[in-house]
Design a protein that fits this description.
Layout: H1 6-19, E1 25-29, E2 41-45, E3 49-54, H2 60-74, H3 77-81, E4 86-91, E5 99-104, E6 111-114, E7 117-120, H4 136-145, E8 150-154, H5 160-167, E9 172-176, H6 180-192, E10 200-203, H7 211-216, E11 220-225, E12 230-231, E13 235-236, H8 237-245, H9 248-251, E14 252-262, H10 269-279, E15 285-288, E16 305-309
Parallel strand pairs: 3-4, 8-9, 8-11, 9-10, 11-14
Antiparallel strand pairs: 1-2, 2-3, 4-5, 6-7, 12-13, 14-16, 15-16
Length: 310
């Protein structure tokens, strides 16, 4: 990355912070490669807390200048106007992705809002804080289209799609994820939104060994697939995604829909479209959902891909 480009970073985050609603938002997305020399830098606004992440090692001069600029922001009228409380610098390139508190006192488990819904985050101890901000439009679509539906949420993580579905009037959501700790956080997210937990199931299963149990809770009007690109020992995108797609015809109700997601820059939309033609030919591609504008990328095929099939 280029030290000389840091003024662009500060100009952008100042502009976007001034415009940000009282919700969680990405302010700077260098990984979209629209800002030359800043491709490994991101900045998220966690409603009073600023999380700046560096994804590749840089020289000390870059880090020192970055910290100096963030300190100036923390003492600006805009920071006071926005009720800023803390600034964290996360070194994502280093083992364990350590976080460094630069200003204020860190609230590690804040409750934030997105599209009127509440989510509990966990900041500073993990690479990801519990809500993938680029999926905002996907959650909005589910909330708007889940009424009276039986929903299957595969690779549920902290159940953001589930929260959106129940809020949107779903009859039931079945969340499946190997990590029981993530599902427990999902349960907490539902409680924050005063949802009826009798409508929500949390299954700490290995998906590939549990199709029978998953099928018994169907048939499903909507299946959401949002896997990691790679998870050691449990999921490899190019090998395992098709194993999920081929199960869809027996899981879906008549007229059922699928939201299939992939966030690897290594594959394009055609990976999912062609895979669906091969493994579940009764399903047809309908549309690709937009990504939020703050996640614009010079190559849309390298960005998050959220595809709808019916």
């Amino acid at each position: 990355m280029q030290l000389s480009q840091l003024p662009v970073f500060f100009e952008q985050i100042t502009q976007q912070l001034a415009l940000a609603p009282n919700e969680v938002r990405r302010l700077f997305h260098g990984r979209g490669r629209r800002f030359v020399g800043l491709e490994q830098l991101t900045c998220d606004w966690i409603q009073g807390q600023l999380i700046v992440s560096v994804f590749k090692g840089v020289d000390q001069a870059f880090i020192d200048t970055l910290k100096e600029g963030l300190d100036q922001l923390a003492h600006s009228p805009l920071w006071q106007q926005k009720s800023g409380r803390s600034i964290v610098l996360q070194h994502r390139y280093a083992p364990g992705a350590p976080s460094e508190l630069l200003y204020g006192e860190l609230e590690q488990r804040p409750v934030v809002e997105e599209s009127g819904l509440k989510y509990q985050l966990d900041i500073g101890r993990n690479q990801n804080f519990g809500l993938f901000l680029d999926m905002r439009y996907g959650r909005d679509w589910v909330k708007a289209n889940a009424s009276n539906k039986n929903v299957l949420n595969l690779f549920a993580y902290t159940c953001g799609f589930s929260v959106a579905a129940i809020e949107g009037g779903a009859d039931q959501v079945v969340n499946v994820d190997m990590a029981r700790s993530s599902l427990n956080k999902g349960r907490d997210n539902h409680k924050l939104n005063n949802h009826n937990l009798n409508q929500v199931k949390f299954l700490a299963y290995d998906i590939f060994r549990s199709w029978g149990k998953i099928k018994r809770l169907g048939q499903y009007d909507l299946v959401i697939i949002d896997p990691p690109s790679f998870q050691k020992g449990s999921f490899a995108l190019t090998k395992d995604y098709k194993r999920i797609l081929r199960k869809l015809p027996e899981l879906l109700a008549q007229g059922g829909e699928v939201i299939a997601c992939v966030n690897s820059p290594q594959v394009s939309c055609e990976f999912l479209i062609d895979g669906m033609k091969e493994e579940a030919p009764t399903l047809s591609f309908v549309e690709r959902l937009d990504n939020p504008p703050e996640f614009a990328d010079v190559d849309s095929e390298a960005a998050l891909k959220v595809l709808r099939f019916k």
